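Students often ask what a holo structure prediction actually looks like on paper. The answer is less mysterious than it sounds. You provide the chain, you provide the ligand, and the output is a string of discrete structure tokens encoding the 3D arrangement of the protein together with iron/sulfur cluster.
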Amino acid sequence: MPLEVCATTRRPLPILTADQQAALDPGLQRVIDYRKSGLSANWIIGCPLDCTYCVRHTFANFEMKLPRRLMDEQSAARMLLRNKHFRPHVTPIQLLNRATDPMLPAVKPHTLEMLRLLDEQGITNHVLVITRWRIEPQDCAVLNSFHNIRLTILVTHSGIDDARIEPVDSTIAAASLQTAFARAERYRVILYWRPIVPGLNDSDAHLDRARELSHFAHATVFTGLFFKDQIRDYYRDNGLPELYVDNPSRKIFPERLEQRILTHRGGFGSPLFRKTSCAVTFAHGVADYNGHYGVRELCDICPVAQIKRCAEDWRRPDEASTAAWVQRLGGEMLEITNRAVIVEGLPEGRRNFLQHNLGYQVNDINRPHHIGRHGRADIGWTHPQETTR
Ligand code: SF4
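The corresponding structure tokens follow.
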């Protein structure tokens, strides 16, 4: 299948010049980056959708409304597959999850081309594509044509109806979800219900809507918001209502809201998950690659068959070889608990790499996880919690 042309310009997206790329935030110049859900390829940046809580604020890129490429798909695929952290059939991959939407008309042909290039390698890695934009029946035909990669389409739907916060109409994502789910043969579809923000989109009506939509997905993830400094500054500068008074480095998800959602769990049409990788792996009938099974309280809402898969797959790593591996990556292993390998001095990307390869949680000693909080921020959790160590 040749690269399709852009629907609006009839040309592939232009590639930024070297000078233009040099002026970008260093984080955006890095096309391949290791994130929690996998090795992430971001060779296109720029987005017109204007979700005000967008992570692009943190890269000083929010004003770039026209998507542009940093390189072509061949080069991006090569860079991904040759990355020292990439392992065929193991490393989860995410496409275009940082600075654009992969299903925008001008971006979509490039997303599909990248999927084709990866699939033709014969690799079975998970590939995650997250969108809130339009998925058409003809897109589903292409998505169904991939035979090797384990492809998951995550459709972001927040239900936020305050256009100052999120100008994109949530009905677009709702329609995409239904279109993609109705035609899914070789790929899986997740309702990515996020960000859920108290007072903004957590009314009973919002919860009812999410329950309705969950019938059009193989699994549903519910999660909160990163409200980082740069996003808060944007809200202040633009007179927008601030969503939280604090700015934690983890996702915010208050306990009471979680309880309200879980109380009505029976009404959901697909299983609910707190973690993206749990939903993705459930949808494909394999064990979670992040080793969340060690954080056992996460599993209280998981289907029995999936718990069994994760239980069979999860094993405590060998101390000596893990310590040596951590050292090779530039850090120090402190201990292995029943839940996680505890390390010091490893940046997040390397922790994620190790986590995916061990299938066991890898936590930084300086960022302790608390039992029952699932790695989320402290805001909205009232009971003092014991640390996991
Ligand atoms: S059993 Fe636990 S770790 Fe495995 S998918 Fe379910 S919630 Fe996630």
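The pocket of iron/sulfur cluster is lined by residues 278, 281-282, 288, 292-293, 298-299, 302, 306-307, 310 (CB under 6 Å).
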